[in-house]
C-alpha cells in the first residue's frame, strides 16, 4: 500500500485501482504550494494530466502556444518550458494571422453591401472571430500561469487515489484529437479560398490578390515570379495558421469536458467500492471542487466561446450545408457539427452527476455514519456548489444551456432563410434588418433569463 500523505510515491500505471485503504483521508489538509516550479517534492503522474500534456506539446510545436509542460525526470513534476526562437516565430505567425483578419475586413468593406446583404452576416461573423483570436492569443501569452496552477492541482490532489485508465490511452486520444484539428484546418483553409472551381491557376490567382491586399499592394501591380511566390506563401501560411490556431483553441473546450468527465467518473466508480466510506466524501468533494475551480479559471474563456461562439456560425452552416460544393465539405461540416453537440451534451451529463453523489450518500442510510453538523455541511456543498464547467462565470454547462443553444441555432437558421428571401424583394433590406434586431433582442433576453433562473 502507498501512504496517502506521501504524494511522491509512484502510482500504478496499469489502470487497476488498488484496494482503497484510505483511513484518515478526511483529516488530510491540502496545504501544498501551488508554485510547483520551485517545489522539491516528488509529484504524482495521473492519466488526467495527459489530456492537456499532449495538447500543449502539439500547440507548442505548431506555434499556437508559446509554452508547453515538460516533466522533470528527478521529481516528476511538470514545469512550464519555452524557447526564445519558438516565441519569436510564434509572434511572427500570430501577427500574420491577425493581419489576415484585418485584410478580410478590408475586402468585405470594399464591396457593395447593398447589392450583397449577406455580407453583413459574414462581417458580423468575422468580427466575432477576430475577438476570439485576440482573446486566445492573450490567454496563451498572459494567462499561462492558470494552466500551471491546474497542473499543480492535478499533481497534488488526494483525488489521484481514484485515477483509472492507462496513460497510453489518454496520450493516444489527445494525439488523435489534435491530428484531426490539423486536417480540419486544412480543409477549412482550402474551401475558405475557393469552393467551386478547383483550378490551380485560379486558386493561385485568388491567393496572390488577397496577399496583395494583405500587404497593401495595389491590385493592378505586376509582381515578378519570386515576389508572387513569396506573397502567396505568406498569405497561405497566415491563412492556414489562423484556422489551425482557432481549431487548437476549440480543442481546449473538448479536452476539458473529456477530462472532467473522466475525473468525476473515477470518483463515482470509487464510491461503489465498499472501502469508500462517507467520512471520505467531504475531503474528496473538496478536492473535486478545488480541481474544478482551477480548471474553470484556466479554460473559462475557451469554454465560453466554444459553447456560444459557434451559434451564429452553425445556423448559417446548417442552411448552406445542403448547397455544399462537394462531399468532402459536407462531411467536414457534419463531423464538426457532431463534435460540437456531442461535447456540450457530455458537459451537461457531467453537471447531472452531482445528484449521483447525493444519491450515494442517502442510499442504505450511509448518512447516519456522519455527525449532523458535518452532514449538513456536505449536503449544503452538494446542493449549493454546482459541479459544472463554467463559461467565464456567465453560464454553467448544464442541460438547460444545451436546450437554449439548440433553440438559438434553429432560430438563427430560420432567420438566415428569411433573410435570404427578404433581401431579394423591394425594401427587403430594411425589413430583414428589423427582423434581425427584434430576434437578437428576444434571444439575448432568453439567455439572460435562463441563466438567472439557473443561478
From TrEMBL:
Keywords of the record: Membrane, Transmembrane, Transmembrane helix
Domain of life the protein comes from: Eukaryota
Residues that span the membrane, as ranges: 48-69, 89-107, 119-140, 172-193, 213-235, 298-316, 328-348, 392-415
Name the UniProt record assigns to this protein: Gustatory receptor
Organism for this UniProt entry: Allacma fusca
Species classification: Eukaryota, Metazoa, Ecdysozoa, Arthropoda, Hexapoda
